[in-house]
Write a structure and sequence with these properties.
The protein is an alpha/beta fold. It is built from 14 helices and 7 strands. It has a 5-stranded parallel beta sheet, sandwiched between helices. The chain is globular, with a radius of gyration of 20 Å.
Length: about 350
């Protein structure tokens, strides 16, 4: 596989345009820009805004922030910083869908060490099984990761917003690394319009006729609330703080938030469904769908190039051959009652995107 010699972006990735010198279009553009951060928004001082938000404690015994806790390195690190550095009274929140055993062990270990309250929401397994199965059989043209993630993520983001609204918690904080989710959807903060005015129900699901009104009501819709309700802000602090993937892995291990360093790796704490999504995209496109995300971090100096030069081919091999962690591919297909031929791209681009501004 041909890759950019600077950031490892596969030639098959959209807009890679690798030249004869082995440099992709993103690296060529980066070399002509003064900014080192592809996701900067210069008119707005995010650092000052975040510091102000995190130092505005309520001091009345109620929660200062709700923290989305998945058990991955970034959410663990975020939780630790908020509790120990900022001294916030936080409520950790987890939507219990498809979380692997290692991530659960990380969650339990970190909560015990930090002495933090934890709320777990366990929605209907039947609904998610139906949803994942439908989306994988009707993928939009960007493939499985995009089709599923950009319906799945708004569900648990909406869960967090609903709990924070109900409990009058002013902040929802998520451990998204830079570039997660796509910058046009969120760069540091979900817009007020997106939280306070927009129905997040994907139009494609409505139009399919496969989902009941109760099932569609699982998505965030601020119009269900009375006009006087106060909605929280939804921020991603790691978009602002200095971020280095390897450094965070090292820190969460040294802090005792994970039992083994390997448990902080995104490879080991990955959701089981993600292995199936990667398998489908490798099958259709010939490259790992997360490669562009890691390549962006490499370009920014926020991920270890040598590590991913070594690990990405191994990850792709175990996925394609359904070995080791790649056995999740087989297990998830069995759970969803899918055959290889069911992993189909049938929908136009953007069919399932949540509405944006």
């Amino acid at each position: 596989m041909i890759k950019c010699k600077h950031c490892l972006l596969p030639a098959e990735a959209p807009d890679a345009d690798i030249d004869s010198a082995g440099m992709c279009a993103f690296c060529r553009n980066k070399s002509n820009q003064s900014s080192t951060d592809e996701y900067d928004e210069p008119p707005f001082n995010r650092t000052a805004d975040l510091e102000q938000a995190l130092t505005r404690r309520k001091n009345d015994g109620t929660y200062d922030a709700l923290v989305c806790l998945s058990g991955g390195k970034d959410s663990l690190y975020l939780l630790h910083q908020l509790k120990t550095k900022y001294r916030l009274n936080v409520l950790a929140f987890t939507t219990d869908v498809n979380i692997p055993d290692i991530a659960w062990a990380n969650i339990q270990r970190a909560l015990k060490k930090l002495d933090i309250d934890h709320l777990v929401y366990r929605p209907s397994d039947q609904f998610y099984r139906k949803l994942f199965r439908y989306l994988l059989m009707n993928q939009e043209e960007r493939g499985a990761v995009y089709s599923v993630s950009y319906v799945y993520a708004p569900l648990f983001e909406g869960d967090a917003l609903a709990i924070a609204t109900e409990k009058r918690i002013p902040l929802v904080l998520a451990g998204y690394s830079p570039g997660q989710p796509e910058p046009e959807r969120m760069s540091y903060e979900f817009s007020r319009k997106l939280i306070t005015e927009t129905d997040w129900t994907p139009p494609g699901l409505k139009e399919s006729g496969k989902f009941t009104n109760d099932e569609l009501a699982r998505f965030w819709n601020p119009r269900r609330y009375p006009p006087e309700i106060q909605f929280p802000r939804y921020l991603a602090p790691l978009h602002v703080w200095d971020y280095n993937q390897e450094e965070i892995i090292r820190k969460v291990h040294e802090l005792g938030l994970v039992k083994k360093r390997a448990h902080a790796s995104p490879i080991h704490s990955n959701y089981p469904i993600n292995w199936l999504l990667m398998y489908s995209d490798l099958k259709h496109f010939g490259y790992n769908p997360y490669a562009p995300e890691f390549s962006a971090l490499i370009r920014q100096g926020k991920a270890n190039k040598l590590y991913w030069r070594f690990m990405m081919p191994i990850v792709n091999f175990i996925i394609k051959n359904k070995l080791l962690l790649g056995r999740n591919v087989t297990q998830q297909m069995k759970w969803l009652d899918l055959e290889e031929s069911d992993l189909r791209i049938t929908e136009p681009r953007g069919k399932y995107d949540p509405k944006l501004e």
